[in-house]
Amino acid sequence: MKLLTMKIQRIIFIASLFVVTHHAIAQTQTIAHRGFWKTDASAENSLTSLVKADSIGCYGSEFDVWLAEDNELVVNHDSSYQGKSMEKTPSAELVTLKLKNGENLPTLEQYLKKGKTLKTRLILELKAHSTPERETEAVRKIIAMVKSMELTTKIEYISFSLHAIKEFIRLAPAGTPIFYLEGNLSPQQLKEIGATGADYHLNIFRKNPNWIAECHELGLKVNVWTVNKSEDFEWLISNKADYITTNEPVLLQKTIKSK
Ligand code: MG
């Protein structure tokens, strides 16, 4: 009887180890797209959206970065806002613009300063700029700022620009996560340029469903944007996507928890 109890305990112990390990490997993580903005007093790419993403325990909070006319870095999605071009307007003017929640358009420095007080990871998208030289300048400035603010282990870089991605890979400290967004490189090609992984649109993975497993076999991570529906969450979770970038972080977290 005692032997049987010991055997059962041993089986339970091994099973629980398996569950813990399996969970740690398979768990899909939530990234709030442009922060958590579909909630009270928030707005896309606002400091509030970053705080709100952190408050619900998101793995990461994504935001978009531009190099302004005076080579200062600001946070905004589109290439122009309220008629002002991000690249052709001095930052001092851009930061006077109001976001939908009444906050001013933030500088990258303000954004990182806020991020430093939070637990959520900072998923920085460098937008594709008018010239490769401006992208290189932006990459240099970003990496220097992140280093001086001691945020190197908390930041991840993403971009649609292959040039920007290659510059992040060349200039960021080894081990910094760097993901390409455009979707036109195979897992093998991503591996060859030294990217951390694919951060592709859902349709790219729907068209190439084997790419998730291929990335994993190559040691690459998989992030998917911008996924907002339960059925797509389910499909990606069952296919073991590492991260999902979403405008619906609460719904995604609920779906992950239900697994
Ligand atoms: Mg973005």
Structure description:
This protein is α/β, with parallel strands linked by helices. It has eleven helices and eleven strands. The protein has an eight-stranded parallel β-barrel, surrounded by seven helices. The chain has a two-stranded antiparallel ribbon with strand order 4-5. The longest helix has 25 residues. It is globular. The structure holds magnesium ion (MG). The site of magnesium ion (MG) has 3 residues, from strand 2.
CATH topology: TIM Barrel
- Tell me the number of structural domains: 1
Number of strands: 11
| Helix amount | 40-55%
CATH top level is Alpha Beta
Which class do the helix and strand fractions yield?
alpha/beta
Overall geometry comes to: globular
Second rung of CATH, namely the architecture: Alpha-Beta Barrel
Largest sheet: 8 strands, parallel, barrel
| Cα radius of gyration in angstroms | 20 Å
Strand order of the largest sheet: 1-2-6-7-8-9-10-11
SSE series: HEHEEEEHHEHEHEHEHHEHEH
User: Which runs of at least 5 residues are low in confidence (pLDDT < 50)?
Assistant: 20-24
User: Quaternary state, please?
Assistant: single chain
What is the CATH homologous superfamily assignment? Phosphatidylinositol (PI) phosphodiesterase
Distance between the termini: 36 Å
The residue-averaged pLDDT reads 94
Strand portion, in percent? 15-25%
DSSP summary: helix tally:
11
Name the features:
single chain, 259 residues, alpha/beta, TIM Barrel, 11 helices, 11 strands, globular, binds magnesium ion
Tell me the layout of helices and strands.
Elements: H1 2-26, E1 29-32, H2 47-55, E2 60-67, E3 73-75, E4 80-81, E5 84-85, H3 91-94, H4 108-116, E6 121-126, H5 132-148, E7 155-159, H6 162-171, E8 178-180, H7 187-193, E9 197-201, H8 202-207, H9 211-217, E10 221-225, H10 230-238, E11 243-246, H11 249-257
Parallel strand pairs: 1-2, 1-11, 2-6, 6-7, 7-8, 8-9, 9-10, 10-11
Antiparallel strand pairs: 2-3, 4-5
Helix pairs in contact: 5-6, 10-11
Bound molecules: magnesium ion (MG).
